């Protein structure tokens, strides 16, 4: 797996100001100093795993801008920017659009009536577009993206509000066997066949899922988990992946962990 550059957004304005998923409880205080340390810890771990980290500045109006995974979907030098479901995050779109333009990407938008939340719900996997709909993103958006990027869609439906993005309940591993960890209860059963045709699906427990075990981030041959108290880590290590831990507990208050804080640029 080649992913040598990623984009993160600096955390100085991170806070819980509204609630758009069940993890976010209005009024819950974020320990900002701890959050900044955790964010820097994740950045260093990613660098240690061999990736360069680019940083887009935070923005005082948009606390969730820190979750760069939601910026869009990238294929080579082309980006399709997200159309956020909730008005609270829609202002992030132009910030990302400008960043990608300034950084030499060919930037386009998807039709505004289709909601889509970037790497949260979709990513390019060889000749496939792996995606999910049902909570934040629309199926039509995924079909549109697959057409634009000339990819075969492999699309599943999410059914649990707590696991509102694909990256909260699924992560493919850097092995040669299309291994992926996933939380079965988050998916509409009948749609999972799309994934089981392609991936060797390894279930995680509810306990692991609630620690956002599937929101680990893959950097080259390493898998960075958000906590060491996750049972599936042993299985992932036995598959030959190098395992790292980066505690991002402050960000779990917003429903995000390692993968949410990152998008792979190349
Ligand atoms: N509070 C953010 C939201 O609900 C968290 C986003 C996490 N990102 C992700 N890729 N799952 O939109």
Written overview of the protein:
- The chain has one domain (4-264): L-arginine/glycine Amidinotransferase, Chain A, CATH 3.75.10.
- The chain is globular.
- The strands form 5 sheets. Strands 2-1-15 form a 3-stranded mixed sheet, with helices on one face. A 3-stranded mixed sheet has the order 3-4-5, covered by helices on one side. The chain has a 3-stranded mixed sheet with strand order 6-7-8.
- With 266 residues, the protein is an alpha/beta fold.
- The longest helix has 17 residues, at 32-48.
- The protein starts with a strand and ends with a strand.
- A hairpin with a 2-residue loop joins strand 6 (122-125) and strand 7 (128-133).
- It has helices spanning 32-48, 87-90, 92-102, 139-148, 193-196, 206-210, 232-238, 249-252; strands spanning 5-9, 52-56, 72-75, 78-81, 106-109, 122-125, 128-133, 152-157, 170-172, 179-182, 200-203, 217-219, 222-225, 242-245, 263-264.
- The chain is built from 8 helices and 15 strands.
- The model has no long low-confidence stretch (mean pLDDT 97).
- Arginine binds next to loops.
Summary?
This protein has helices spanning 32-48, 87-90, 92-102, 139-148, 193-196, 206-210, 232-238, 249-252, and strands at residues 5-9, 52-56, 72-75, 78-81, 106-109, 122-125, 128-133, 152-157, 170-172, 179-182, 200-203, 217-219, 222-225, 242-245, 263-264.
* Weakly predicted, low-confidence segments: none
Span between termini = 10 Å
Mean pLDDT: 97
Task: Give the biggest beta sheet.
Answer: 3 strands, mixed
Number of helices: 8
Number of strands: 15
- The side-by-side strand order for the widest beta sheet comes to 2-1-15
Quickly count the domains: 1
Portion of residues within helices: 10-25%
Radius of gyration of CA atoms, rounded to a whole number: 17 Å
Protein structure class: alpha/beta
- Share in β-strands: 15-25%
Q: Kindly identify the CATH topology.
A: L-arginine/glycine Amidinotransferase, Chain A
CATH architecture: 5-stranded Propeller
Shape: globular
CATH homologous superfamily designation: L-arginine/glycine Amidinotransferase, Chain A
């Amino acid at each position: 797996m080649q992913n040598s550059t990623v984009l993160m957004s600096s955390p100085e304005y991170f806070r819980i100001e509204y609630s758009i998923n069940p993890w976010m409880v209005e009024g819950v205080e974020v320990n900002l100093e701890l959050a900044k340390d955790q964010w820097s810890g994740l950045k260093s771990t990613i660098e240690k795993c061999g990736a360069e980290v680019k940083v887009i500045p935070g923005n005082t109006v948009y606390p969730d801008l820190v979750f760069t995974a939601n910026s869009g979907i990238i294929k080579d030098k082309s980006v399709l920017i997200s159309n956020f479901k909730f008005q609270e995050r829609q202002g992030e779109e132009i910030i990302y659009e400008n960043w990608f333009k300034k950084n030499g990407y060919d930037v386009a938008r998807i039709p505004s009536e289709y909601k889509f939340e970037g790497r949260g719900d979709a990513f390019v996997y060889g000749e496939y577009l792996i995606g999910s709909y049902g909570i934040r993103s629309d199926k039509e958006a995924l079909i549109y993206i697959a057409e634009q990027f000339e990819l075969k869609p492999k699309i599943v439906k999410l059914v649990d509000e707590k696991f509102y993005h694909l990256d909260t309940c699924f992560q493919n591993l850097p092995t040669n066997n299309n291994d992926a960890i996933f939380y079965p209860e988050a998916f509409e059963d009948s749609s999972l066949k799309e994934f089981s045709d392609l991936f060797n699906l390894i279930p995680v427990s509810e306990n692991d899922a609630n620690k956002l075990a599937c929101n680990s981030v893959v950097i080259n041959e390493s898998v960075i988990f958000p906590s060491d108290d996750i049972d599936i880590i042993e299985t992932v290590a036995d598959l030959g992946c190098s395992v790292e831990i980066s505690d991002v507990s402050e960000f779990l208050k917003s429903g995000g962990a390692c993968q949410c804080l990152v998008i792979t640029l190349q």
